[in-house]
């Protein structure tokens, strides 16, 4: 439960336009779809996926860093990491376990022949889209645990796309499809208020001094 008095107080320090923009963006935000990025070596690819999450209204993203260090490049994410909640996991199994506990079905994005084509994929419940490494794709841990496989149809000689391109195409398609269905895809009122407070704090340069005055 957030402090609504604090939110009202802090919103005095941002413009009316920015406050309204927060409200508009939050109406399009969803946790019904989330993304998990598994051991991506090229840091700009992880950052670009986070940017696509933000652009298409995905509020939560998960980064698995089993083999490589932190893969988030602020320059390429272009500030998107401020608006998307990124959770880091040390290994794939713990990430899958966490997502299942949150009620997500695990969907592996892979060009395998038995994968469902993107245009035919049906959203019936909360889904976590897993994207793998550039060369090796997703691990066997994901493929064995997946509730479904998904691929982008292609008609050229190229067998796979860059992970950031794949994520953008899939997220654009599925978020559009999701919003046409009668599913509880939007954030709850309390979740919206929580994000409003968090985003407002991030928008105020002297936030520590202002908080001190509020609580003092």
Describe this structure in words.
With 216 residues, the chain is of the alpha/beta class. The chain has one domain: 3-Layer(aba) Sandwich (Alpha/beta knot), CATH 3.40.1280.10. It has nine helices and seven strands. The chain has a seven-stranded parallel sheet, with helices on both faces. Strand 2, helix 4 and strand 3 form a beta-alpha-beta unit. Helix 1 packs parallel to helix 8 (189-202), helix 2 (16-27) crosses helix 8 and helix 3 (43-55) runs parallel beside helix 7 (163-178). The longest helix has 16 residues, at 163-178. The two termini are 21 Å apart. The model has no long low-confidence stretch (mean pLDDT 89).
Annotation keywords:
alpha/beta; Alpha/beta knot; 7 strands
Low-confidence stretches: none
Overall mean pLDDT: 89
Rg, nearest Å? 19 Å
Order of helices and strands: HHEHEHEHEEEHEHHH
Report the strand count. Answer: 7
Helix fraction by DSSP (H/I, runs of at least 4): 40-55%
What count of structural domains? 1
| Broad shape | elongated
Structural class: alpha/beta
What is the name of the CATH superfamily?
SPOUT methyltransferase, trefoil knot domain
Percentage of residues in strands: 5-15%
Give the CA-CA distance, first to last residue.
Answer: 21 Å
Number of helices: 9
**CATH architecture verdict:** 3-Layer(aba) Sandwich
Spatial strand order of the main sheet: 3-2-1-6-4-7-5
Summarize the structure.
The chain has 216 residues and is an alpha/beta fold. Helix content is 42%, strand content 15%.
